[in-house]
Amino acid sequence: MVIIETDLFVLALSLRSASKVTSTYVMGVSHVNAERIGPYLDLNHYLDNSDKEIYFLIRNPYDRFISGLQRDLLVEGKTIEELHEYRKDNWYHGCPILQYIHDKEYKIIPYDSLSTYIDADNDEKFLKNFKNTHQESVIEYAKTVDLQAEFDAYDYIMNNKQILSPSHFKDMVSKSKLVNFTGVGDMVFW
C-alpha cells in the first residue's frame, strides 16, 4: 500500500494499481528516496481519524492479482510453485484489501479511468515482454485463488462510493503540499 498524505487530502494506492505513475503525478520529481518525518500510519488510521478528503485508486481484484503475480515472478525470478511455497498465499502485490475497507468513507478513482485523472502511461508497460511468455501460467494459477470476497467488496465499492471527478482531483493536486515526507524524493512502498 502506498499512502500519500498532503495538507488537503490522503491518497491510497494499492500496489499493482498504477501506484508508481500516480504517486509520481502527485509528488512530481520528488518521488524516490523518501524519508518519512513521522511514523507510518496505515490506511485505517486515515479512514477512521482524518478530517481530510480520502481518495482510493481502485482496480478490479482479478486484474490486480494477475499483475501482482506477474511482477512477483519477474522480480523474484521464481516459478509460481516456488512463490506459492514462499508466500503461503500472502501475495505481496496482489493481497486482498478491498474487503477490509468497503464500509469506510472515501471517494474512489477507478483504475480503468486513470488516464482521465493523470497524464502518464500505465505502469503495465513494465511487464509487456514478460506477459508474452508467462501470461497463460499466471492466468491458470489465478483461477485457483479464491477472490470472491474481494470481488464482492469491489462490486459494493463501485456501486456505492462516490467517484472523484478528474477535475477535482487535478485541482486538489495543484493546490496541495506533501505532508510527512522529506528528502529528494517521496515514494515509499510499505
Q: How would you sum up this structure in a few lines?
A:
The chain is of the alpha/beta class. The chain has helices spanning 19-27, 43-49, 61-76, 80-87, 98-101, 128-142, 148-160, 166-175, and strands at residues 2-5, 9-13, 35-36, 53-58, 107-110, 181-182.
Shape: globular
Structural class: alpha/beta
Number of helix segments? 8
Order of helices and strands: EEHEHEHHHEHHHE
Question: What is the share of helical residues?
Answer: 40-55%
Mind telling me the C-alpha Rg? 17 Å
Mean pLDDT: 76
Strand tally = 6
Q: How much of the sequence is in beta strands?
A: 5-15%
- Give a short account of the largest sheet: 4 strands, mixed
Low-confidence stretches: 31-37, 182-190
Integer tally of domains: 1
Strands side by side in the biggest sheet:
1-2-4-5
What is the straight-line distance between the termini?
Answer: 6 Å
Q: Could you describe the 3D structure shown?
A:
The chain is of the alpha/beta class and 190 residues long. It has one domain. It is 43% helix and 12% strand. It has eight helices and six strands, in the order ββαβαβαααβαααβ. The strands form two sheets. A four-stranded mixed sheet has the order 1-2-4-5, sandwiched between helices. A two-stranded antiparallel sheet has the order 3-6. Helix 3 crosses helix 6. The longest helix is centred in the middle third of the chain and has 16 residues. The radius of gyration is 17 Å and the shape is globular. The C terminus is likely disordered.
